[in-house]
């Protein structure tokens, strides 16, 4: 006679369920809040493309972030958005004196000395081409020039006071160049690199591109974002970034890529792993709840738990302010 299963007894009590779920427990420290910073310092502009989100000028950040820090927010991810300042081929206003990201890092550093400030490093929000690198005359990406520029921006963000550099461009060699530039400027042992390593070409980025006023019409970044159907190239991209010295890895987007998340955790179990729940995924979850398909907190927390279970240690999400409230009154 086959042995009768008794699995049920292992999770019938709440404490037993907690013991079964250590890898998928949600704490406030798991969440990073991405903030879009407007280049007009006093602006507070609701985002049509990203419902329930706002672009803040740097003078408005403290009032917005303060209550979230009081609720337990521990980490933010900074993106600059240009509306007034000009865009050019090399993305000069990524890290100029008046650049929104530079100002935001300085303001947040002085207002909240203890939060972890992660600076996204790319130039697509600041270039006239909308590309993540500097383009050659024939439209190709000039990898060497791009990587050099990304390293330069990273050092300036480090000098402004950020804690983590997060290169999102997918340019080959960027992690090595950034690590080396940080080291040369005295930040080698101070600032880790969280690399957007397995970043796929995705149609779920749409609202973000609109919100950051990207010059590139919707798509196409095919030449450097990974093809969605391939796991092999994603594994190689993760390995490339580790070989170049990345301190933390990221998979982006989330919903359609949880297998890659699991693969990344299996390949590099000792490296903190982040997942980015992107704008389209955020909007989709929000709209589903608005339509009455599920309660927003139940639906979103279930998804977050799934991302943790798949291997994410860090979840970057526009839902971070909501999650802080929900975890404060955990069911
Ligand atoms: Zn970019």
From TrEMBL:
What does the record give as the reaction this protein catalyses? Answer: 2 5-aminolevulinate = porphobilinogen + 2 H2O + H(+)
Q: Which keywords accompany this UniProt record?
A: Heme biosynthesis, Lyase, Porphyrin biosynthesis
For the keyword Lyase, the answer is yes
Q: What is its EC number?
A: 4.2.1.24
For this record, the Gene Ontology CC terms, alphabetical, are: cytosol
| SMART domains the record matches | ALAD
Q: In which pathway does it act?
A: Porphyrin-containing compound metabolism; protoporphyrin-IX biosynthesis; coproporphyrinogen-III from 5-aminolevulinate: step 1/4
What are the GO MF terms of this UniProt record? Answer: porphobilinogen synthase activity; zinc ion binding
Tell me where the signal peptide lies: none
The record places the active site at: 199, 252
Known InterPro entries for this protein? Answer: ALAD, ALAD_AS, Aldolase_TIM
Q: What class of enzyme is it?
A: lyase
- GO annotation terms (biological process): heme biosynthetic process; protoporphyrinogen IX biosynthetic process
Oligomer status and interactors:
Homooctamer; active form. Homohexamer; low activity form.
Task of the protein = Catalyzes an early step in the biosynthesis of tetrapyrroles. Binds two molecules of 5-aminolevulinate per subunit, each at a distinct site, and catalyzes their condensation to form porphobilinogen.
The family classification in the record reads: Belongs to the ALAD family.
For this entry, the protein name equals: Delta-aminolevulinic acid dehydratase
- Give the originating organism: Trichoplax adhaerens (Trichoplax reptans)
